[in-house]
Design goal:
2 domains, flat, two-stranded antiparallel ribbon, 193 residues, 65% helix, mainly alpha, two-stranded antiparallel sheet, Topoisomerase I, Chain A, domain 4, single chain
């Protein structure tokens, strides 16, 4: 959806630019720039503002802006280091959990699925199913945030390739556990969602 908006804006900008180049009147050339600014405000900005990357540098997980060559302190970054036990605000303003917290959340979600048994009327069973599935999706979102933070750290140079690959494999294992739990939940409740 975001890509479509960016492509739409790019198309509009291209059309407006071509129109402005053909115009002899400078007032007419100024109008498309105002329209572009209005469109950007309506869409919510461009990619740089949405990703948390400042135009002058890289935003660190704790919200400070540094030059792109600077490497964030590993003790303040749950992705680069494994020391902190609390969640830290990530690049995109979301509290990112540590891999240990994600493992605990995943194990708890899998245990909940294993303990789940359809009970009550069919409507109650459907309610049970979607309640547990929503919890699985919430854990999956947390893992996705962590995975996004890993990628940001790797691309900014704050993490070497081997560390990234190792941590990405840990993420893949957690995602696989959640996928198996979701499949088991669908089988237990007889709902293929």
């Amino acid at each position: 959806m975001k890509k479509m908006k960016v492509l739409l804006i790019t198309g509009i900008l291209s059309g407006l630019f071509m129109t402005a180049c053909n115009s002899n009147n400078s007032a007419q050339a100024q109008q498309p720039q105002g329209e572009v600014a209005n469109l950007q405000q309506q869409v919510g900005g461009t990619g740089a503002a949405d990703t948390g990357v400042a135009s002058t540098g890289v935003t660190t997980p704790v919200g400070e802006t540094t030059t792109p060559a600077a490497v964030p302190d590993a003790s303040a970054n749950p992705v680069a280091g494994t020391t902190p036990a609390t969640a830290v605000q990530g690049q995109v303003g979301i509290q990112v959990k540590t891999i240990e917290e994600l493992t605990t959340l995943t194990n708890a979600a899998v245990e909940k699925v294993n303990a789940a048994a359809p009970a009550g009327s069919r409507d109650e069973q459907i309610g049970q199913f979607f309640q547990i599935k929503d919890e699985l999706k919430a854990v999956e979102r947390e893992i996705d945030y962590y995975d996004d933070e890993l990628e940001i750290q790797f691309k900014s140079g704050a993490m070497d390739r081997m560390t990234y690959v190792t941590k990405d494999r840990e993420v893949d294992l957690l995602e696989d556990q959640l996928d198996r739990a979701e499949d088991m939940l669908e089988i237990k409740f007889g709902i293929n969602d």
